[in-house]
Design goal:
Layout: E1 2-3, E2 12-20, E3 23-31, E4 36-45, E5 53-58, E6 69-74, E7 82-83, E8 87-90, E9 97-99, E10 108-109, E11 117-122, E12 128-136, E13 142-150, E14 155-164, H1 175-184, H2 187-197, H3 216-230, H4 234-246, H5 256-272, H6 278-288
Antiparallel strand pairs: 1-2, 2-3, 3-4, 5-6, 6-8, 7-10, 8-9, 11-12, 12-13, 13-14
Length: 293
């Protein structure tokens, strides 16, 4: 039982967890002058696939005057790769008020086995964010962090971070992390991780003990060029592709021609995007403001 800020007109406020091996039930208990009022917040019992409950009591809605909120989350099963949000309640009134995430479930595909852990961290606005943290790929540990902040209507993702916690001596184990990031986390996250490995890529052998091709670094840079272009960073793409086309890592690199072709594509794409002159822009605005007679 945890004591909470007492609402006006009450003598006490408490969070109670009834825990069994199969799950937990959470009750909000209000003490009045002559009686107690119990409100059920969340109950989850599963005797086949039991989950352990965890909870956070913190200022989570940016309104310190109304007291702390309660966030409840459960451990995930070994075969689950989708992140589920905590259930958050404001207990500042006579009845609990649910503070949602949108969507209300399946908020992020981790894509690998993970431990479901949430914490509260201070934000620049004076309140606290709900922060999901986990680590995947033990052979090349990758830390994931996602911050969610209450915007008055729902908890919104405001920051995400992906970084290696410690690079192994054998970097070949990290290639699977890059492929995973490209599939699940998007181009920018993949760029950030690939650039960490770039100075020492490739390692002498792959995970099967076979030597990498002599032009492996060119392929790595070519992929970086593709991912930069996907984010709209054509300058970054050109930098990587120029390295491959003008300074390949092997005399007969297979990636010189693809890099040159991609550079030509970027050049043609830039030429096709013509800036609108001020005069034409003004004419278009006048035309758009003219109503048909």
């Amino acid at each position: 039982m945890v004591a909470l800020k007492t609402p006006p007109g009450k003598l006490g406020s408490y969070l109670i967890e009834l825990r069994e091996e199969a799950g937990s039930s959470f009750i909000w208990l209000l003490q009045g002058t002559s009686s107690y009022q119990a409100e059920q917040l969340l109950t989850q019992f599963d005797f086949t696939n039991p989950r352990q409950a965890n909870w956070i009591v913190a200022e989570l809605d940016g309104q310190p005057a109304d007291g702390d909120e309660v966030a409840i989350y459960f451990s995930n099963l070994a075969d689950e790769t989708m992140l589920q949000p905590p259930q958050v309640y404001s207990l500042s009134g006579e009845e609990p008020r649910f503070l949602p995430f949108i969507p209300d479930k399946d908020i992020f595909q981790v894509g690998a086995q993970f431990d479901n852990y949430w914490a509260a961290a201070y934000n620049p606005e004076g309140g606290k964010d709900l922060v999901f943290q986990t680590s995947i790929f033990p052979a090349c540990p990758l830390n994931l962090s996602r911050k969610y902040r209450w915007n008055g209507m729902y908890y919104k993702l405001v920051e995400e971070d992906y970084e290696f916690s410690q690079l192994p001596a054998d970097l070949s184990a990290c290639e699977a992390v890059i492929d995973h990031a490209a599939h699940y986390f998007g181009a920018q996250a993949t760029i950030d991780l690939m650039e960490v490995l770039l100075p020492n890529w490739p390692p002498p052998q792959d995970v099967d003990g076979n030597p990498y091709p002599a032009d492996e670094k060119d392929e790595w840079r070519y992929r970086l060029g593709v991912y930069h272009s996907l984010t709209g960073d054509f300058a970054g793409a050109v930098d990587q592709l120029n390295q491959v086309s003008t300074q390949p890592s092997a005399p007969n690199s297979r990636w010189v021609k693809p890099a040159q072709e991609f550079l030509e594509f970027i050049k043609s794409l830039r030429m096709s995007i013509k800036p609108v002159s001020r005069r034409n822009s003004a004419t278009q605005r006048r035309q758009s403001n003219t109503l048909p007679v």
